[in-house]
Automatic annotation (TrEMBL):
It comes from the Bacteria. InterPro entries: Metallo-B-lactamas, RibonucZ/Hydroxyglut_hydro. Residues 46-237 form the Metallo-beta-lactamase domain. It holds the Pfam family Lactamase_B_2. This is Ribonuclease Z.
Amino acid sequence: MQQAVTVTFWGVRGSVPVAGADHVLHGGDTTCVELRSGSDVVVIDLGTGARALGKALDAATCPAVTVLFSHAHYDHVLGVPFFRPLYRRGTAVTLASALAGGTAAMVADLMRVPFFPVGPTAFLADVTCVDLDPSAAWTTGDGLRIAMAPTCHPGGAHAFRIDTPGGALACIFDHAAGETAVDEVLVAFAAGVDLVVLDAGGAALGGETASNGHSGWRQALALGLATGARSVALTHHHPDCTDGILAAREADVTRTAPHAFLARCGDRVTLGQGGPVRMDAGSAVV
């Protein structure tokens, strides 16, 4: 019997983590998405949501983790020093990216004095840093195929598509929609997946058009719908977007596309089975 493939959102904010009574429902941690397929655990980005994910990855059931970095802006890497599997003997952790300076150099730069008290030498796991070729697909674990495509974002970033025996996931962040040629490539790249996750982190209140390298929510939704994905998740929520703002936005989104939603920390999607299973309102990922 084929095992279910699940996708869990551990961080859904962009730019900077937030906290407070107005940011409970969707959560305040920055980008971190986990895919589980059989014995494979693949994580896209280690924003501050990586802390909670790392606590949840039990050594007995998760002896190996692959982490893919879309790019190295702070909101996508700040969780690296706090990702518990990196400090667990006997765990194999692969850190992979197509960063121009290399994956190992990024981690070393992130964890150096005067910005952090210890460097990567503090890691106890079996850590391998991989530099990916964006033009070549990468196969790992039990039949997973990982492909990449460039996005429109200051400094560059890459979208990921992961095809598994039980379904396909595409993560397109960070990306400012509007460049027709790039958008068309990304639509083809993510065509027919079970779940597409898109950056909708444009300006806080209206948030309908691209801003500072991020798509507005209407642009992101249109891009997601064009892929023909079974489910569309909008994420990378602006830090100034309160639960009230996001609730109103999600109502607009679902009126347009019932199979689309605004991701919340803790949302879990089983590929091929529609929308997210959600925690009770007011609970939190800790």
